[in-house]
Amino acid sequence: xxxxxxxxxxxxxxxxxxxxxxxxxxxxxxxxxxxxxxxxxxxxxxxxxxxxxxxxxxxxxxxxxxxxxxxxxxxxxxxxxxxxxxxxxxxxxxxxxxxxxxxxxxxxxxxxxxxxxxxxxxxxxxxxxxxxxxxxxxx
Amino acid sequence: xxxxxxxxxxxxxxxxxxxxxxxxxxxxxxxxxxxxxxxxxxxxxxxxxxxxxxxxxxxxxxxxxxxxxxxxxxxxxxxxxxxxxxxxxxxxxxxxxxxxxxxxxxxxxxxxxxxxxxxxxxxxxxxxxxxxxxxxxxxxxxxxxxxxxxxxxxxxxxxxxxxxxxxxxx
Lengths: 139, 170
Fold this sequence. Notes:
The complex is a heterodimer of chains A (139) and B (170).
Chain A: H1 4-10, H2 18-65, H3 73-77, H4 80-98
Chain B: H1 3-26, H2 29-45, H3 56-75, H4 78-83, H5 99-113, H6 117-127, H7 133-140, H8 144-169
Helix pairs in contact in B: 1-2, 1-3, 1-6, 2-3, 3-7, 5-8, 6-8, 7-8
């Protein structure tokens, strides 16, 4: 029996269909082109988003660095004493608004007066009771 | 060398081995075509995929193997393929004109089909893929000793199955 490994090696695998080469290479090149196009597109959109972010960064930095020191014209014209009073009232109002809601004081309900129970001692027997005199006693 | 030329070179050098290997795994020309195309699409879209690779063929076999396993898992056909293992005749080998050679080929193919998948792939890669055991081990993510023992077990089983055929000839 010839060595089986040699026998196997003599057999040739089925050849790959010739048409596949064109198909597969074309598909690979197409995939490559699609990837490059999407890369270019994502790069251009990246530039757009980057510039937009830069503009926003400039706006925010300007906003943070500029301090607001001037009062509104209405407040600037106000007398300092009146302004101080106005300011105190505003603070108080703000404190009231921000304070936690206070609960009303608890008032226990008023109890009705308790009636005293009737005395447990029985009344005197009727025989012992003094008869009411309707008429004055006879003399 | 431009990328299309490089891809064409890789195709010319390795496509036949990849085709034979994928046919062994999938037993379907359609699946083999899809997987082979996927291999080359990956090569085209990831330029540096082969950079620093010691064995191009080993790497490509591994890539094809992983893609095939993923595809089979996705489609839940792996178990079906295993159930049909050895029952269907696959045309993985080229047909010859000599009747004796054709008979021998059919017998060998039948014997090859009865091998478990892991032995069959190693026998295939060693016999027709032209890979060393080290390259097979790298491609299949197994130890070289495991690859060698699977090959040996596979060859022994084929030899055992072909014994009646040779006895008949003698």
